Amino acid sequence: MKKNLPLMIAPLALAALVFSSCASGIHSRPNIHGMISRVGYGDNVAYILGSMHQGRANWFPLGPTVEEAMARADVFVFETDLELAESPEVVEYAQKLLVLPEGTELKDVLSDRGYAWLTRNLRKFNLSYDNVSVLTPVGLSFVLAAMGNEAAGLKSKYSVDDYVRQFARANGKPAIGLNDVFSELDLVFNVPMELQAETFDDFGSSRSKRNDMSLERAYAMQNIAAIVTMLDRSMAEASESALARHMHYAVFNIRDRIFAEEIARLLRETAEPTTFFVTMGIGHLVGGNHGRVFELLGEMGFEVEPLWE
């Protein structure tokens, strides 16, 4: 590798694209239900919870319905295999996707507008261009999102995913993934360079600054309507950018179907009666073009029973 990266991006920082947010000022523990819903098939049951991939310590424990479902679970299921995601092989693969080809720098691939924004704003993150010059534009956007979340007090160790993962570990329960971790990385980071050139073009614009309520605050309050509004807005704005359209399709449309089909397979093909507890980003559950897992399961013939309403 040509230079040291400013920090190692956790391979599962995928949802920084969807769930980057700002400080909310919420200090009391909310009753987080995550749109928890039940899907059954024969003797098998899946409880499906909408998570957020960064959070705060005061979010836990989760709502009683969620905690009770966790206690009943035999197997815990995440977007991908979280244990494998921390392996040296995956870290090495992620780094290859995050570093530009030898002899290429950010200034060679970004648009003039995007490069101008980057050079003006890197100091806000205590970074210099030399720190990040070898990162791909999309890779750098994840670095900056992770740093922004950290500055706002949001930490991955307080994510709903990690809380559920620690519960599974403490109770000796197996954990599996809905999608292969290498496929997850490819979907988000293996983006055509001509599209990556648009990264940062709209950063700092009045459009991207508009934020009536942070996604973190909406999640902490379990304001599903606000989350839907934000995702609808994001989808509308994505239509104006080829990169954003590509990322939206990869993060939501493709992965929604992968997640729904794997849940269906687990329910239909697991011979021993099993209760699964499935955790995925809440953006995959809220409905519409960007959160269709529940809808897709319904189209496959499963009855989705909301336990949170």
Brief digest:
By secondary structure, the chain is α/β, with parallel strands linked by helices.
Mean pLDDT: 87
- Helices, by number, come to 16
Strand arrangement, largest sheet? 4-3-5-2-1-6
Count of discrete structural domains: 1
Helix share bin: 40-55%
List the keywords.
single chain, 309 residues, alpha/beta, six-stranded mixed β-sheet, 16 helices, 6 strands, 11% strand, globular, disordered N terminus
Give a structural overview.
The chain is an alpha/beta fold and 309 residues long. It has one domain (13-306). It is built from 16 helices and 6 strands. α4 (88-98) packs parallel to α10 and α15 (242-269) crosses α16 (293-299). 47% of the residues lie in helices and 11% in strands.
